[in-house]
Amino acid sequence: MAGQPQRIAQTLRQQIFDGSHAAGARLAEIPLAEALGVSRTPVRLALAQLEAEGLILAAPGGGFLVRRFTLAEVEDAIAVRGQLEGMAARLLAEQGLSPAARHALDACLAAGDEALGAPTLDAAALASYGEMNDRLHAIILAGSGNAALARALGAVTALPFAAASALVPHEGSRAARHELLRHAHRQHHLLVEALAAGQGTRAEALMREHAENARHNLRLILAAGEATIIHPA
Amino acid sequence: MAGQPQRIAQTLRQQIFDGSHAAGARLAEIPLAEALGVSRTPVRLALAQLEAEGLILAAPGGGFLVRRFTLAEVEDAIAVRGQLEGMAARLLAEQGLSPAARHALDACLAAGDEALGAPTLDAAALASYGEMNDRLHAIILAGSGNAALARALGAVTALPFAAASALVPHEGSRAARHELLRHAHRQHHLLVEALAAGQGTRAEALMREHAENARHNLRLILAAGEATIIHPA
DNA sequence: ATGTAACGGATTGCATGCAATCGCCGGCCG
DNA sequence: CGGCCGGCGATTGCATGCAATCCGTTACAT
Question: According to the CATH classification, is domain B4-67 in 1.10.10.10?
Answer without folding.
Answer: yes
